[in-house]
Amino acid sequence: MAGIDGGKVAAAYLDQWMLTRDWCAEIEDWSAASAIDGWTLRDLVAHFGLVADSIRAAVEVLSDEKPLRLGDYIATYADDAAAIDERTRDAAYAEGFLFAVDATAAVAEQAIASVEGNPVVAARRGPIRWVDFLRTRCIELTVHSDDLDRSVAGEGPPTSRPCLQVSTRALADVLSWRAPGRSVEVRVPPFAAVQCIEGPRHTRGTPAAVVEMDPITFCRLAAGRVSWQSAVAAGGVRASGLRTDLAPYLPLL
User: Fold this and answer.
1) What is the DSSP letter of 39?
2) Dist CA 84 CA 75 (whole Å)
3) 179-249: what CATH class?
4) Rg for the chain (alpha carbons), in Å?
């Protein structure tokens, strides 16, 4: 994909995984509730193994089909939510689950190293360009590492700046695809700024309508971890001008 360095995206994924895995070594009570309703910390960490295994599966077969756009691919997540929940619970309560997570992570790293260029891969939700698929894996790690952080009152795994950058830019692309237009500028400094939503288009100077927020707030909104109304009320979102209510377009995942 033009303009996106696949090697840097892969490195960002691996960076966040290493930070998260190191933090997991300190977990003492795996049965503690997580910030995701119905999931324990054990469930949440087991899910990282599924994310890694999806990388292995994607590179096994290249596809000749037309690749899905990033937004189209992500749009399939909601329909698979129940199946993801079931697979996660099965993985979490298998014997030696953390060993299995480590093993799949190692296989995923090998798979990443085996890919050359930016082919179309046969991912589980359809054909997609390799770099776009890796961007979805970065989103998964960013969101779920933050879930761990929220689960333990802000004492979770460190956030990888490269992975957060990749995730923020990818989700900003999805927002502009989901809400096409040029009437509102959404800024997520220091990583992204996109124009979206139909309406009057500005051509110079500061746009008449601006929405600004930090990357973690943006990722939480995109993943449905926080509502638009609560983020605005808490001061995490600053909006000025018309058409700046993004609630109709969120969450993105």
Assistant:
1) -
2) 15
3) alpha beta
4) 18
Give the 3-state secondary structure percentages of the chain, helix then strand then coil, rounded to 5: 55, 10, 35
CATH class of the domain comprising 6-159:
mainly alpha
CATH 3.30.1050.40 segments of the chain: 179-249
- The residue ranking higher by pLDDT, 172 or 204, is 172
Does residue 179 sit in helix, strand or coil?
coil
pLDDT in tens, 93-111: 999 999 999 999 999 999 9
Q: With residue 60 as reference, give the H or E element that holds it.
A: helix 41-60
Q: Give the span between the Cα atoms of 177 and 140, in whole angstroms.
A: 19
Q: How far apart are CA 48 and CA 193, in angstroms?
A: 29
CA atoms within 13 A on the CB side of 65: 12
Cβ contact 34:148 at 8 Å: yes
Tell me the residue ranges of DSSP E strands in the chain.
120-123, 126-129, 184-188, 192-196, 210-213, 237-240
Element (H, E) at 137: helix 130-151
What is the per-residue pLDDT across 17-68, written as a single tens digit (0 to 9) for each?
Answer: 999 999 999 999 999 999 999 999 999 999 999 999 999 999 998 999 999 9
